[in-house]
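ingest -> validate -> predict -> emit
validate: passed (alphabet ok, no gaps, 379 aa)
predict: started
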Amino acid sequence: MAKIESIPVLYVRGSNNYDIGYTIGKTFKFWIKEYLETSNDVERYRNFYDTEHGRAIVNTYMQNGSRSHPNIMSEISGLANGVGASFEDMFLLQIASELDFCHLRQISKPKDDDDVIPKGCTDVLVNLKDYRIMGHNDDWTEDVAARVYIVHVTIENQNGGVKEQFVSYCYPGYLPGFCFGMNESLVVTLNTVCPREANEYGTPLLICLRSLLGCSTVEECVSTMKNEPYGCSYGMNINVGSINSSDMCSMEVSPYKGKTQVIVKKASQEFSLENVCYYYHTNIYKFSEVDESTNGTGSRLREKRIAEMTSPKCVYDVRVILGDTVDEKEPIYIEPHPNHVEPHVKTSATAIFDISQRKLHVYKSNPKSSTPVLCLPFF
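emit:
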């Protein structure tokens, strides 16, 4: 049988977050329930929640989310009801980063920091006057990669106008915003990073990331992640490209003394000793002083390989970088292999945001040698 590639896209319009979450949950109910029932990660989250210590931490995160973003908590509730799952199970997915890379680690106390490895992702930013491109490899395990989908969401205000509108690549059961996405003003891609500590009294990371899909400027993105006065509970690398201006940057978010630190590295169209027009990021902090829970071996190998390659000048050059498989231990484009740093991880999709041409291309196979399975125009 010939190879088949597909990725479902759901177009949904509604007047509130609950209905949006419910429709997404109901549409992808089979995949999400299957993931909840079979994922080893979900089982670990449930076991943590079943302990007195774990329940107290999770309940605190729930209270934080309800206090700062009740609309998004309503979206999680709608998602759970659409699937026919408990709110608790659905919420546990939304704090997966905090659990995986901080709280569960504190319990298991691995001897080697590299026992805690983020699943991956690689980003390439090109901000030239003739070519403005953001490319992203989304890397995760097969149980997630086999159940991904894209949502095209419109939330209306009381007068029938557009209150919020975005496109987001989604993992099963996770809120939109945890992967790559865009709205009429911004392109956003993400890389997992792993600070050793979490801010238990901040808003869960994924709730803040979901809020990014409503931002219009880089400054709004910074403010959204700082989330004052509550702060954001965990860290993330966020890459942002403005569709209607030359702004492009990479942001590193981290908990800092009960608040949230956001440091911005700009990719400027005007090259100088201080400015760069080409930038890349993986799963380690590059310009923030943060105590991390992983040595980032795989990320460093990917960055080393990118540094050896020719600086990209066009879309095809970005595809070549993101499709590179030269490194035998941690290639940039990842297929599961026993010799890899994380043997079961794969690149589930590659996104090429051609900002100059206002098009999103999504590849399910190696972007260096394949055609996109999906092309979407910008808003």
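The chain has a mean pLDDT of 94.
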